Amino acid sequence: MMFLLLSRSSIRRPVFSPRLARGYVAKSSNTERIPNISAKDTSAAEEKTLSSCPPGTILEGLNYLKGQPPVIALPDDEYPSWLWDLLKPKVYEDDGPGGKAEKKRLRKENQQRIKDQNFMKTQ
User: Which of 20, 6, 17, 53 is nearest to 34 (CA)?
Assistant: First the structure.
């Protein structure tokens, strides 16, 4: 057997550059709200509220890079319409036996059956 001895000087390490390093933003103690960005009628916005926070709220934890301005919630009408449909369950049209809806249903039932069997094995 032949062993290759390497000295420490022959091993190259990447050079650390402080410009390339990113740091996390310190948690701000300022939790007050910034005034509303738009001057639209607020009574119409109260009738149909889609988001969980009012416009102008500082969203903590979304700006994790140093030196960035805080992320502020916008009014609901400034977000794209598809955003509000992301959490709705997908509905498949019934296209007969062997169709996509039946395959999804059978797969879900099979996964549940496997979970139940695995649970019973632990009892």
Answer: 53
* Cα gap 108→88, rounded to integer Å: 17
Beta strand segments in the chain, E: none
| CB-based burial, 100-116: b 16+ in 10 Å, e otherwise | eeeeeeeeeeeeeeeee
- Report the SS3 class of residue 102: helix
CA angle 63, 69, 73 (to 5 degrees): 70
Contact 79, 56 (CB under 8 A): no
Question: 69-82: per-residue pLDDT in tens?
Answer: 999 999 999 999 99
Contact 37, 77 (CB under 8 A): no
Give CA separation, 90 vs 60, 95, 108, in Å: 30, 15, 13
Find all residues with CB under 8 Å of 57, minimum gap 6, and list them. 33, 72, 73
The answer to pTM > 0.70 is: no
Residue 97 has pLDDT above 50, yes or no: yes
**What are the tokens at 69?**
């301005």
